[in-house]
Automatic annotation (TrEMBL):
Protein name: Zinc-binding alcohol dehydrogenase
Source lineage: Bacteria, Pseudomonadati, Pseudomonadota, Gammaproteobacteria, Chromatiales
Similarity comment: Belongs to the zinc-containing alcohol dehydrogenase family.
Coiled coil (residue ranges): none
CDD domains: 2-desacetyl-2-hydroxyethyl_bacteriochlorophyllide_like
Length: 325
């Protein structure tokens, strides 16, 4: 089977991007040709990459699995790709798959580089897979317990999904906190209580911070109960932040711990690997059609170089990129 050249989105300099043509060639044994149907913008991480704010110390750890080029630029970056297998070993052609691949019309990957979508998961919703996997990992790190008062600060996609998972724990009292009043309606559609920071509940047993803001992390310290645990999901890139860890931080014996999706928490590592975790994230997406409310924007791939800056700087949730045949 012969394929046209692929078109890929590259960041050519901080705040600038373009499409580049890339020859596909022919797949080898154990490889697939995948035609992209949708990709997704991971606003937090991709914003830092777009603006050239990946710290030099983190360039290795920050590499996406199928990234090309190096930070800050030129770089082909991204890890939310849903496509259809066009060519591969028997049984694979026609299979809808998720892959941690950048924004590109077609690509060749090893069979073990993709995960088939569950039969009841539409490709349109599957762009939330990476966020759902991050939220699942966050819950493993946070270890919320039945009956606890849990505050999730930051109602972006990861914060919303983490709050949704926590709210399924029997007896849990979950409150989602954000400065954007428009998030209240979205939270309501997910069955989650919402509060502005000025009215946020105090004395929480567990706090998960996902706002990527200094003010949000300060609020997490303020609303924590004695001996509470605060899980930091945000990544600040090369920004330095200031926190009041004098004051009552020590007397209340608070725990502040980071969570990062690149590593499975130690308590789970004996039984879980990244593939099993991704498969579970896809199963959760299939089981929760209401999570589709988190996809609130879509742009054709052809317009991505012109639209990327507005997408990154916008106040939306998950932004989906649509590919035409």
């Amino acid at each position: 089977m012969s394929h046209r050249n692929a078109q890929a989105f590259w960041i050519t300099a901080p705040g600038r991007g373009e499409h580049r043509s890339e020859p596909l060639g022919q797949p080898g044994p154990g490889e697939l040709v995948v035609r992209t149907i949708y990709s997704g913008i991971s606003r937090g991480t991709e914003a830092l990459v777009w603006h050239g704010q990946v710290p030099g110390s983190e360039t290795r750890r920050m590499r996406a699995p199928f990234q090309a080029g190096d930070f800050p630029a030129p770089v082909k970056y991204g890890y939310v790709n849903v496509g259809l297998v066009e060519q591969g070993p028997p049984g694979w052609p026609g299979t809808a798959v998720f892959c941690l691949y950048p924004h590109q019309t077609r690509y060749i990957v090893p069979v073990d580089g993709v995960e088939p979508l569950p039969a009841d998961l539409p490709a349109e919703r599957a762009v939330l897979a990476a966020n759902a996997e991050t939220a699942l990992n966050a819950c493993w790190d946070a270890m919320p317990q039945a009956g606890e008062r849990i505050s999730v600060i930051g109602a972006g996609v990861v914060g919303m999904l983490t709050a949704a998972l926590c709210s399924a724990i029997p007896g849990s009292e979950v409150e989602l906190v954000d400065i954007n009043p428009a998030r209240r309606e979205t939270a309501s559609r997910l069955g989650i209580d919402f509060a502005h920071p000025d009215e946020a509940r105090t004395a929480n047993d567990r706090i998960i911070h996902a706002s990527a803001s200094e003010d949000g992390l300060r609020l997490a310290l303020e609303v924590a109960a004695n001996e509470a645990t605060i899980i930091e999901l945000s990544w600040f890139g090369d920004r330095a932040i200031s926190l009041p860890i004098g004051e009552a931080f020590h007397s209340r014996r608070l725990t502040l711990r980071s969570s990062q999706v690149g590593q499975i928490p130690p308590l789970m590592q004996a039984r879980w690997d990244h593939r099993r975790r991704l498969r579970k994230a896809l199963q959760l997406l299939a089981a929760h059609p209401e999570w589709a409310v988190l996809i609130d924007g879509e742009t054709p791939f052809e317009q991505l170089p012109q639209a990327m800056d507005a997408i990154i700087s916008g106040a939306g949730l998950c932004h989906r990129i649509r590919y035409e045949e």
